[in-house]
Write a structure and sequence with these properties.
The protein is mostly helical. The chain has one domain. 54% of the residues lie in helices and 10% in strands. It is built from three helices and two strands, in the order H-E-H-E-H. The chain has a two-stranded parallel sheet with strand order 1-2. Helix 2 links the parallel strand 1 and strand 2. This is SDR family NAD(P)-dependent oxidoreductase. It comes from Mesorhizobium atlanticum.
Length: 61
């Protein structure tokens, strides 16, 4: 999921996790992604420009 660092993207990431989905998230603000990762126990939060890394993370899981 892109845009998870804040706003609608973050709200959607929270809802997906609440519904039992595994979420790979990305966004431009690494500090916000770190907080979201810690709060939701996410295993993959990727900074801007990491689309290839996100694809690989999804493939591994």
């Amino acid at each position: 999921m892109t845009g998870a660092a804040g706003g609608i993207g973050q709200a959607i990431a929270r809802q997906f996790v609440a519904n039992g989905y595994r979420v790979v998230s990305g966004g431009a603000d690494l500090a916000d992604l770190d907080r979201l990762e810690a709060e939701l126990n996410l295993t993959h939060c990727l900074g801007a420009g990491s689309a290839t890394s996100a694809t690989r993370a999804i493939a591994r899981n």
